């Protein structure tokens, strides 16, 4: 069992987190069940207890979007993908927690996808404000090149990048095919792997294929613009190949259908 202060220091990336109020009457029963489940997953899953009544754990509650009133609850998260899984049960006994952890390791658990409400004016400013609900629809639009900042609102490093992102949006303001956007990574879930610290920058080229390009260069306007223009040229070439492959596929399907129709007709005439 680990405490919240050591959650990021373990080499094990899978974390089972018990959010619980230590002052509740049922605390010891739930905590004992959680401890017992932990014994089965040494070196596979780190079990962490977070006291929701402890003010110093406020950031943990904010990051996982947990309200004190929801405790006790168990969440599983991988520190590489940041995808969260929620134990779908009000019964927090050892068999239930163990089965949940096993389903996660087996890959059968379903992620808990959360999203803020789409703001009415999300697309009215140069920098578009995305949420989980519309992220993929915009990011993987085959007719748009989307450059998106994934940020944490309470991170000084994230906030310091906002002015530069506004500059970038202004630079491409007349390019309708380019979208500069940002999304609060602490309030919205997404199926993308983030291996670096936030803010993380990802480019989604205008392709039918779902390509994601991580930006790791210098964070200044010149380098960002050069990166975006280079990736757009690359995507333009790949898009032409996509269109050619699609054309050949359609022609091939038409030929197959024509052949099948002819064979069906000949068979009917023979009968």
Automatic annotation (TrEMBL):
Family, per entry: Belongs to the protein disulfide isomerase family.
Location of the Thioredoxin domain: 104-233
PANTHER family attached to this UniProt entry: PROTEIN DISULFIDE ISOMERASE, PROTEIN DISULFIDE-ISOMERASE-LIKE PROTEIN OF THE TESTIS
Xref: Pfam families: Thioredoxin, Thioredoxin_6
SUPFAM superfamilies: Thioredoxin-like
Sequence segments annotated as region (Disordered): 235-271
GO terms under biological process: protein folding; response to endoplasmic reticulum stress
Name of the featured protein: Thioredoxin domain-containing protein
One GO location term (cellular component): endoplasmic reticulum
Native organism taxonomy: Eukaryota, Metazoa, Chordata, Craniata, Vertebrata
């Amino acid at each position: 069992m680990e405490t919240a202060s050591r959650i990021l220091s373990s080499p094990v990336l899978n974390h089972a987190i018990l959010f619980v109020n230590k002052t509740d009457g049922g605390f010891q029963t739930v905590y004992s069940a959680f401890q017992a489940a932990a014994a089965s997953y040494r070196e596979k899953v780190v079990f962490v207890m977070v006291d929701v009544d402890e003010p110093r754990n406020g950031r943990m509650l904010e990051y996982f979007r947990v309200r004190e009133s929801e405790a006790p609850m168990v969440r599983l998260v991988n520190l590489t993908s940041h995808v969260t899984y929620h134990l779908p049960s009000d019964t927090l006994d050892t068999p239930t927690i163990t089965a949940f952890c096993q389903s996660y390791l087996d890959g059968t658990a379903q992620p808990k996808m959360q999203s803020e409400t789409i703001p009415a004016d999300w697309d009215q400013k140069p920098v578009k404000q995305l949420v989980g609900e519309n992220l993929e629809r915009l990011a993987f639009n085959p007719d748009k090149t989307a450059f998106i900042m994934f940020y944490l609102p309470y991170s000084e490093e994230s906030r310091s990048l906002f002015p530069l992102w506004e500059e970038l949006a202004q630079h491409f303001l007349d390019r309708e095919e380019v979208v500069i956007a940002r999304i609060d990574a602490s309030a919205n879930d997404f199926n993308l792997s983030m291996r670096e610290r936030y803010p993380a920058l990802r480019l989604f080229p205008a392709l039918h294929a779902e390509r994601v390009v991580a930006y790791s260069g210098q964070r200044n306007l010149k380098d960002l613009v050069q990166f975006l223009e280079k990736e757009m040229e690359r995507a333009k070439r790949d898009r032409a190949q996509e269109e050619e492959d699609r054309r050949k596929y359609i022609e091939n399907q038409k030929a197959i259908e024509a052949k099948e129709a002819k064979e069906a007709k000949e068979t009917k005439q023979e009968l």
